[in-house]
């Protein structure tokens, strides 16, 4: 099908103003926030509601043209078209907050709403969601679809999937599936996820657009915490910092943010001398200030004598500016290729040592610097291995991608598991044996024509 006919067919569904065909704009869809470069699609389409999404998917089925879904496009793992003969479904127009359901303590939203937009609205009612990325400008749809975590994860919640009660999804054949309690035709509330046999909501968590297009999510909301505790600790010994983090988790201290940055990373970011050694920043949240104060005393005990208390100042900045550290970590030393993996919290010390050796390897072999920071999420430490490169130089970018691919295999074979998959990890998926085979069978059962995000997740 030629581009003109594609644009015409899509325009008949969403209106001409919501079809993108300009070369420059289409090239942007080949990129996310990683160094990975995919293919520019033949067109992009911006639906305004579920019915339009259904029509687009039916059209794709009839033509065999693959679709790649995009909400805010801020992924760090190559969530971009893997084929040039494709169309991107851009969900950013679908950004409504459909209903704040205070009775069920949930909120129903469209996938294109950003975390900032949602939190601003909920704050007016004294409510808050449970999990959000450090990047407030990411969308809810892309976060859930790719196993998002971050701010809010700790001993109680590990992942955005834990915070979602139900969905509406346009399946690859164009039908609309509802999951959660509202799957029952007589239920008007999303208040419980697990009642109707297998957990179909979970099937779409982490599916990264390969099994359908999510058009609505119901997220848990809670009373916004009124008690907050902030602390920064520094450590001379990174192994001791790792053990402190484990003790914090074991004591189930109610952290919503516990972030450890290795001293050698800080040396990269502050070449004139980092003001700290290994640094742990903690934010505790509780329903009342009295409870938060108790948690802060327990935190002090769990950290132990190896951690030197530096006061709350930096954590305060973090709370106020939300993503200030991330911007620093991501871009202060150039652009980063962030390779992100989960490692078991109980063996964190050993992994931190091996990441240090990997950083030396990256420096010797690729002439690039690699830093490390990461945060607690349930029993895992989300380790962000940041390989810095010069974004203005194609040669530097290719070296970063080569290092990225090298580090990913070494990390995987050391027992770490990927944070998200996207394009970067797809080639490793067949190595997962039966797990991958079942994913493939599910995929071909739901999407026999293979129109949903081919190549992503290695499918
Ligand atoms: C500086 C920085 C810091 C970050 N920090 C964090 C963090 O702390 N935690 C975290 O989780 N993430 C983080 N991210 C990554 C990202 O910003 C968030 O995860 C964001 O919420 C992803 O949503 P998105 O809409 O931008 O995803 P997109 O890139 O648009 O999509 C992500 C994936 O989901 C699929 N998808 C998107 N929408 C749908 C849909 N409606 N239906 C089906 N599939 C869909 C896409 O096909 C793609 O595979 C960070 C990014 C940056 C740049």
Describe the structure.
This protein has helices at 3-14, 23-28, 50-63, 115-123, 140-145, 200-204, 238-250, 263-269, 289-303, 313-321, 324-331, 348-366, 394-413, 434-446; strands at 19-20, 43-45, 67-70, 87-90, 97-101, 106-109, 127-129, 164-170, 176-178, 213-223, 227-235, 255-261, 278-286, 307-309, 335-344, 370-377, 380-389, 417-418. It is of the alpha+beta class. It starts with a helix and ends in a 13-residue tail after the last helix.
Low-confidence region ranges: none
Small molecules bound in the structure, each named once: flavin-adenine dinucleotide
What spatial form do the alpha-carbon principal axes imply?
A: globular
What structural class should be given to the helix and strand makeup? alpha+beta
CATH superfamily heading of the largest domain? FAD-linked oxidases, C-terminal domain
Strand order within the widest beta sheet? 14-11-13-12-16-17-15-18
Largest sheet: 8 strands, antiparallel
Helix content: 25-40%
């Amino acid at each position: 099908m030629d581009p003109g006919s594609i644009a015409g067919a899509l325009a008949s569904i969403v209106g001409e103003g919501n079809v993108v065909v300009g070369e420059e704009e289409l090239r942007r869809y080949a990129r996310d926030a990683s160094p990975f470069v995919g293919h520019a699609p033949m067109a992009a389409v911006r639906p305004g509601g579920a019915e339009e999404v259904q029509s687009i998917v039916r059209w794709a089925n009839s033509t065999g043209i693959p679709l790649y879904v995009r909400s805010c496009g801020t992924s760090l793992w190559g969530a971009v078209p893997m084929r040039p003969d494709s169309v991107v479904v851009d969900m950013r127009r679908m950004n409504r907050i459909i209903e704040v359901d205070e009775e069920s303590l949930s909120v129903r939203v469209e996938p294109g709403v950003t975390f900032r937009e949602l939190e601003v609205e909920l704050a007016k009612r004294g409510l808050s969601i449970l999990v959000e990325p450090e990047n407030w400008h990411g969308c809810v749809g892309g976060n859930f679809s790719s196993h998002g975590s971050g701010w809010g994860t700790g001993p109680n919640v590990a992942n955005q999937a834990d915070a979602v009660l139900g969905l509406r999804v346009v399946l690859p054949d164009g039908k609309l599936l509802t999951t959660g309690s509202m799957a029952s035709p007589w239920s008007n509330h999303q208040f419980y996820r697990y009642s109707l046999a297998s957990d179909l909501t979970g099937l779409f968590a982490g599916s990264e657009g390969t099994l359908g297009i999510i058009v609505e999510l119901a997220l848990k909301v809670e009373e916004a915490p009124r008690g907050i505790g902030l602390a920064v600790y520094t450590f001379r010994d990174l192994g001791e910092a790792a053990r402190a983090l484990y003790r914090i988790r074991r004591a189930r201290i109610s952290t919503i943010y516990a972030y450890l940055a290795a001293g050698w990373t800080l040396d990269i970011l502050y070449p004139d001398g980092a003001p700290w050694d290994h640094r742990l920043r903690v934010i505790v949240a509780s329903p009342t200030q009295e409870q938060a104060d108790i948690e802060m005393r327990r935190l002090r005990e769990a950290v132990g004598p190896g951690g030197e208390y530096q006061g709350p100042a930096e954590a305060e900045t973090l709370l106020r500016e939300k993503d200030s550290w991330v911007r620093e970590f991501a871009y202060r030393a150039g652009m980063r290729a962030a390779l992100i993996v989960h490692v078991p919290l109980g063996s964190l010390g050993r992994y931190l040592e091996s990441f240090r050796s990997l950083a030396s390897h990256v420096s010797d072999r690729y002439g690039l610097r690699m830093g490390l920071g990461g945060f607690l999420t349930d029993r895992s430490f989300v380790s962000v291995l940041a390989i810095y490169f010069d974004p203005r130089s194609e040669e530097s970018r290719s070296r970063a991608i080569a290092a990225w691919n090298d580090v990913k295999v070494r990390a995987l074979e050391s027992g770490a598991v990927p944070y998200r998959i996207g394009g970067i990890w797809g080639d490793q998926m067949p190595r997962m044996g039966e797990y991958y085979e079942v994913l493939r069978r599910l995929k071909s059962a739901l999407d026999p024509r293979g129109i949903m995000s081919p190549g992503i997740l290695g499918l």
